[in-house]
Amino acid sequence: MDIQKIKTLGDLKKSDYVSRSIKEEVRSNLISRLEKKETSYEGIIGFDDTVIPDIERALLSKHNILLLGLRGQAKTRIARLTTKLLDEYIPVITGSDLNDDPLNPISSSALDLIKEHGDKTPISWIHRDERYIEKLATPDVSIADLIGDVDPIKAATLKLPYSDPRVIHYGLIPRSHRSIFVLNELPDLQARIQVSLFNILQEGDIQIRGFKLRLPLDILFVFTANPEDYTNRGSIITPLKDRIESQILTHYPITTEIAKKITQQEINVPQKLKDKITVPELIQDLLEYIVFEARESEFVDEKSGVSARLSISALENLYSNVHRRMIANKEETATARISDFWGIIPSITGKVELVYEGEQEGPYNVALHLMSGAIKKMFLDYFDNPDKTIKLEEKDPYITIRSWFSAGNEIDLLNDASHKEYQDKLNAVPGLLKLIQKKDLDTEQPDLFMEFMLHGLTEFEVISKEILKRSMNFKDPLARIFFEN
Q: What does DSSP assign to residue 164?
C-alpha cells in the first residue's frame, strides 16, 4: 500500500487498509516477530528467560501492563521499545482533536470534518514514534492534565456555552488514542487521580466535569512502579491494580556477566578513548562486585535498590580517571588499576540511599566499605584464603610477602604514577610476581594482579593500607612498633 497516494478518506476506503485496535496491532506484529525468531526488545539484557516472556504473554493477551521493580531495572526502556511492535504508519483525520481513525472516528471534531467534507476529508499518516506518550506521575498531576477540562478561552473564541463538548480541552490520555500511554511511578499519583483511571481501563471512556462523553478510547497502557511494599511515598489503590490485567516483576542482573554486558552497552565513552585505555576483566568484574555488594550491604536501603546506573557512571569515571593520569604522565595508552577505583567514589555516593547506620558511617566511608567487601570476595576467586594458611607457615604462600613487610618495609602507590613507576613499586615486593606466575594468571598484566593481591591481603589483615590524598601506603603496622621498641 502506497501511503503517499492515499490523502483522503475516499482514497483510504478504496485501498486495502483495515482498521484494528492498537492491542490487536501489537499482538499481530508480535506474532510475526516470534515466528521469525526476531527479538522484540533489542538491547534489554538479562530478561530473556524472565521478564520478556511475561511481557510477550501479556501483549498476546491484549493486556494493559504494570511493570513492578526497583529503580534502574529498564522498566521505562521496555515501555519505549514496545513502539517497535506498532505498525510503521497509521492514518488519522487531519485536524481532528485526537488521533482519529478515519474509518472509526470518535471525536466531535473528526465527525464534523467528515460531515462537512465526506470522502474528500483529508487524512495524514503518523509514524509509530509519534504514538508514544509518557508521563511521570507526581503529586501535583491533576485530572485536567490526564483527562481534560473545560477550556474557557476556546469557549469565548468560538462563542460557545460551557455545555458544548467542543469547549473541552483533552488531556494526555485522550490524546493518546491509538497510542501507547506510559505512566511512570504510578504510586506517586494521588489516590483521587488514580480513581479517574477506572473507567478508562475498564470501559475505555472518560468523564470530564458534567459532560456525558462516551469516547471508546483505544490505548495500550503501560504503568511502572516500585513494588508497593517497598515504597514509602504512596501506593497503588487496589481497585486500580485489579483493572491492570498483567503485573510483571522486573529484577536486577542475576550474574556479574550479565551486569558487565549491560554496563558496556550503556556507557558513554568516546571510542578513541576506549582504543587507548585497557580495562581488564578483573577491573570490570570488581566494578560489578561493588554493585552487588551495595545491594546486600547493611548500610544501604534495600527497599530503594541500587540502580544499574551506578556501574555505568562508575565505569565512565574510571575511564576518566585513567585518562587524567595519561595526560599527567604524557602517556599514549594506559591500563586501569585497582587504585583507579578511588576515583569512582562520587559515582557510588550519589547512587545509594543509606539507612540510619549508613548515615552514621558517612557516604564516603560506606563507599570504601563496599569496595573493601568486593575486593575481599573477589580475592578468594583467585588466591588462597590467608586466614586458613596463616597458622601453617611451611605451606603459607604469602610467607615471603609477609616477611618483607614484617621487616619494616612499605610501599607507596601514587594515584597518578606513570606505568614504569607503578611497575617498579610493585616489583620491589618480593614474592608478589612469583605467586602470580604460580597461579598461572594473566601474564600480560602481572602488575594488575600484583596490586590486587596487596589490596586483598589488607582485607584479610595480613598487611595494612592507609589511603592518603595522593597515594596508598601498604605496610605492616606491627613491624614499626617492633623496630621502634
A: S
Distances (CA, A) of 339 to 213, 286, 312, 412, 451: 65, 12, 18, 11, 8
Residue range(s) defining the domain that contains residue 440: 383-485
Total of domains in the chain: 3
Answer for the pair 230, 303: CB distance below 8 angstroms, yes or no: yes
Over residues 236-269, the pLDDT tens digits come to 888 888 999 999 999 999 999 999 999 999 999 9
pLDDT digits (tens, 9 = 90+) for 52-75: 999 999 999 999 999 999 988 999
Residues 341 and 402 in one domain: no
- In this prediction the pTM is 0.86
CATH value at residue 134 = 3.40.50.300
Predicted confidence (pLDDT) per residue in 330-371, tens digit: 999 999 999 999 889 999 998 899 998 999 999 999 999 999
Can you tell me which residue has the cell 478510547?
217
**Residues 269 and 330 reside in one and the same domain:** yes
Q: 463 with 454: CB under 8 angstroms? A: yes
H/E stretch holding 19:
none
Radius of gyration over every alpha carbon of the chain, rounded to an integer in angstroms: 31
Q: Using the structure block, give the residue that is written with the C-alpha cell 529498564.
A: 74
| The three-state (H, E, C) secondary structure of 350-399, written as one string | CCCCECHHHHHHCHHHHHHHHHHHHHHHHHHHHCCCHHHHCCCHHHCCCH
Which cell is 317 given? 569515571
